[in-house]
Queue: 2 jobs
Job 1
Amino acid sequence: MDSIMTDARWTLVGTIDDIPVLGSRVVRTPDGDIALFRTAADEVFALEDACPHKQGPLSQGIVHGRRVTCPLHNWVIELATGEAVAPDEGRTGHVPVRVEGRSVSIALGMARLSRGGCRKACAHV
Ligand code: FES
């Protein structure tokens, strides 16, 4: 786990190089553990590190395309939304990510976390 630096509503959590390709890194935040995922195309996504099924650690799952497969029972979760792929149903919290150069920031204040519901201006419905 790593510490974080706060700058207004965006929180700097490191660089893209801190996240393995097709892997993840967990950051501890006041809102709980957030898993940062990096795709083969260097896209970065952030999800609450808890599967919508039985709270499995998504950070330990397998990243493929823009999805991650949970290590516990193989549910597949969309990285962009936290939604479970059918036939499974459910959603984990997703957090907006900003990549500037190699720096990665997350917007915790706009996170849609499963235990707290949508807060502030999150457009996710
Ligand atoms: S806890 Fe993730 S699939 Fe069951």
Job 2
Amino acid sequence: MHYCPNSSYRWHRKEVHSARAMAEEETSCLFCQISKDPASTHTDLLYSDESVVAFQDIKPAAFRHYLVIPVQHIPTTRDLRRRSEDYQLVSHMLSVGQNLLFKDAPSSKTEFGFHQPPFNSVNHLHLHCLALPFIPRWKFTKYWASGSDGRFVVANKLLKRIKPDEIQAETGSVSQDLSEPSNLKRIKKFPARLFHWNRRSAA
Ligand SMILES: [Zn+2]
Ligand SMILES: [Zn+2]
């Protein structure tokens, strides 16, 4: 059981997800398999670095529909915290998705966001990157951020939620950079050392 309706769940993740439970979840996780051994899953990666990989959604709902996932097994948006490492990771995922769609669908309207539990299909964090139109047209309901049930949260809104104070204090914040279509050089320039942390050993 991955989703616990108890609202205190998010504050007690460590107890619920013991190291062993997390390890078991990882070995049975399709997205972990894709990020660690894409060939075994017959997945063509559109992009990869040491912290994220990107590939096409297996059931595309739009003209272009990509997923960007962290290499590390993070189950859902509920497992993200207001802290620099999570903020940097989601910023990087968004930047990668923006670059891919800017390259592959330069004239399309785009949307970027996450399904929130229990509406997420796979328990491994994944950013939906959509270049419109939706195909078929009614598919937009699944990715409709203004719905009151909160099933889909747009990436910038999630970033606001997990933005730590020290980043807010900086001038020229990351989110301002992200509002413009970023260029492909940004991916290469991204400092890899930011992702040499180990979530489970972190306090
Ligand atoms: Zn996983
Ligand atoms: Zn999803």
